[in-house]
Amino acid sequence: MGTTSAAAASANLRSSYGGLKLTFLVGICGGVPKISQQNAFLGDISKSIIQYDYGKQHPGRFVVRNAVEDTLGRANTNIRSILSHIEQRRLLRAVPALYWPR
């Protein structure tokens, strides 16, 4: 469990299957905060990751670095393309039929 196990599993995938170009290692989130005053439920899909144990220790407090650039850097082009496609499909379904006559 945790980030160390996830990193080891990812490394083992790459060494076992050399032809992989893009992989997703998914699992169950240990804790989900409220997202802008809405609850997250089992089955909800998250398209982002925040590493909760990365930050800087100050006297008396720990400050989490949670900006994307701090933890992950810019996502792979293939990942950004897939996420963009998923988001586009979701937005198109949300548009009322008045705006998109068939």
Automatic annotation (TrEMBL):
Top-level division of the source organism's lineage: Eukaryota
Annotated GO biological process: nucleoside metabolic process
Organism (species): Dactylonectria macrodidyma
Gene3D superfamilies xrefs: Nucleoside phosphorylase domain
Gene Ontology molecular functions: catalytic activity
Record-linked PANTHER family: AAA+ ATPASE DOMAIN-CONTAINING PROTEIN-RELATED (PTHR46082:SF6), ATP/GTP-BINDING PROTEIN-RELATED (PTHR46082)
Record's protein name: Uncharacterized protein
